[in-house]
Amino acid sequence: MSSIVELRQLHKHYQQGELEVKAVNDVSLTIEKGDFAALCGPSGSGKTSILNLIGGLDSVTSGQVLLEGTDLSTLDNSELADIRKRRIGFVFQAYNLIPVMTAYENAAFVLDLQGMDDKTKHQRVMKTLADVGLTGLEDRRPDQMSGGQQQRVAIARAIVTEAAIVLADEPTANVDSKTAESLLDLMQKLNREQGVTFLFSTHDQQVMDRAEHIIHILDGKVELDKRKAT
To answer: CATH homologous superfamily for 3-225?
Structure first.
């Protein structure tokens, strides 16, 4: 396997008054192509901070984030935005869909930013919505869908670009356990059948049970980095 993400001695520190908070403290790890990986740990452990650094949503204090071999700290804002549009998919616990847009329009949003032609975009979006089980719901807005359906739209938006990695921040936090199970079934199927690489941040036991690569984070440090035997 080849690495998608490599973190090298990663640090992220914040100032809170006179106190320096070490949200990420000397983290080194690798996410391989095809991984179904989970950053696990209690709230405040540094999981989301690590995800934000990998996604180029925040800047490092020191160390390196390599995405497909590119050091994100060497990129300017425009280059980072382009990487996020083309190589990184995001799934958030609050869905982050655009309320006035339909499922189709939300899924197509990043392709529009990329400037993809309408015919290719339509084919790509319709196939992706079918892949996530939303055939027939293309014209519904978020307020016309259940939480699980909205999260499926968010997953479609994340994978429609054929991104190198999907970063999923607590993606099951706002749905019931049955819906969470169906979302995990979906993401596991995308991982196994289409090779989509997923990295979750989570404290949901259902996600941890499914993950094939577990990384325990505590106080900004890696406590355990283990791949399950296959």
So the answer is: P-loop containing nucleotide triphosphate hydrolases (3.40.50.300)
